[in-house]
TrEMBL record:
Descriptive protein name: ATP-grasp domain-containing protein
Molecular-function GO terms, alphabetical: ATP binding; metal ion binding
Chain ranges of the ATP-grasp domain: 231-279
Domain of life: Bacteria
SUPFAM superfamilies per the UniProt record, alphabetical: Glutathione synthetase ATP-binding domain-like
PROSITE patterns per the UniProt record, alphabetical: ATP_GRASP
Pfam families: ATP-grasp_3
Keywords of this entry: ATP-binding, Nucleotide-binding
Length: 364
């Protein structure tokens, strides 16, 4: 049973691993409905998150007539990890528990962990800095980049904090944790798709074909140290910035994330390995050839009723015809493969531009 803000990629991974997915998410897009044995729409919104008051009742209804192997959760729980506690009283949960999520998603906790383990990490603070151009403001437990903003408005509060901006190249490590060791699956680079109100909104990611073994070992050692200290389990990811002098750990995502599509493998299905890691069994890491990339297409303007689109191959997360969309809402996800990371990234960005014609033309 899959529960997330968007469950399509996890449902696809579940099918690839030989499972029959039951899905609860905020979208219930056409792809998710086609993949799932049964799917229900969660109460909540992208801004407010998943409605915690109805989550257990919704999942109980979803599971009626089935005996789910486990609940696998995606994004949407970092801000309210108590939902994991509530779900785990009814169903077995295959993922990190609420205590572990709090340890790595609370900004003060992660900062202390990094200090203790000698892992470089940007300074954080909760009071408004004087030199705001050197700082970002973030939502504690936020995901997807839309919550990240320059610290130019003095935004603060019990859910927001300030993190020093580190210029450089981003790097994301996908890893399988077994509570004792972090096994690196691979590395990716991400890019943003800026909008007026969300300059760091997630745009896409490309799986790197190869990466420095020395740097990979260093990052693996850091993530193993964090895993042992926090009890991380299953598929997780870590985001870094390389400023030219070294790496800085920006955040840990304690669940399968946005790069699952470009790392999943027919030969070694990652959801199967996720479950094995959570159960403490021996795991395998996929081997890859070439590169793969994914990118999200957003609508720049509000659409009162989304048109019918004959979706081409290498796309997913399709908006349903007739759906009302606000400016900035996601429309679909595009994919590309190539021999190199640069070629895959160029191809997927080109595909996003080509796809946008389908809904731009409709409203000229």
């Amino acid at each position: 049973m899959i529960v997330a803000i968007s469950g399509r990629s996890l449902a696809a991974a579940a099918k690839q691993a030989g499972f029959r997915p039951l899905v609860a998410d905020l979208f219930n897009d056409a792809d998710t409905l086609a993949l799932a044995d049964r799917a229900v729409k969660l109460s909540g919104s992208l801004e407010a998150g998943i409605d915690e008051d109805q989550i257990v009742e919704t999942l109980t209804d979803l599971a009626r007539g089935y005996a789910p192997t486990a609940v696998v959760f995606g994004s949407g729980f970092e801000r309210k990890p108590e939902m994991i506690d509530a779900i785990s009283k009814i169903f077995p949960v295959a993922g990190n528990n609420a205590k572990t999520i709090r340890l790595v998603k609370d900004p003060s906790s992660l900062s202390r962990l990094c200090s203790d383990l000698k892992i470089p990490h940007p300074d954080i603070r909760f009071d408004v800095p004087d030199n705001q151009q050197e700082w970002l403001t973030k939502l504690a437990g936020g995901a997807g980049g839309s919550h990240v903003k320059p610290a130019n408005g003095g935004a603060s509060g019990h859910e927001r904090y300030f993190q020093r901006f580190i210029p450089g190249k981003n790097l994301s490590a996908l890893f399988l944790a077994d509570r004792h060791q972090a096994h690196i699956v691979g590395f990716s680079r991400q890019w943003s798709s800026p909008s007026r109100h969300a300059p760091f909104r997630y745009g896409g990611a490309v799986r790197l074909r190869r990466y420095s073994r020395t740097k990979s070992v260093l990052i693996g050692d850091w993530l193993t140290a964090l895993t042992r200290r926090t009890g991380l389990a299953g598929l997780c990811s870590a985001d870094f910035i390389d400023d030219g002098c070294g790496f800085h750990l920006i955040e840990i995502n304690p669940r399968p994330g946005a790069t699952l599509d470009i790392f999943d493998s027919k030969e070694t299905p990652l959801l199967r390995e996720h479950l094995r890691a959570v159960m403490g069994h021996r795991i395998s890491v996929p081997a890859y050839r070439g590169s793969a990339a994914s990118a999200i297409a957003y609508t720049a303007r509000a659409i009162s009723a989304f048109p019918h689109v004959a979706w081409p191959a290498m796309t997913a997360d399709h908006q349903m015809p007739g759906t009302a969309l606000a400016a900035g809402d996601p429309v679909c996800t595009a994919f590309a493969t190539a021999d190199s990371a640069i070629a895959a990234m160029r191809a997927v960005k080109s595909r996003v531009k080509e796809l946008a014609v389908h809904w731009r033309e409709e409203f000229r």
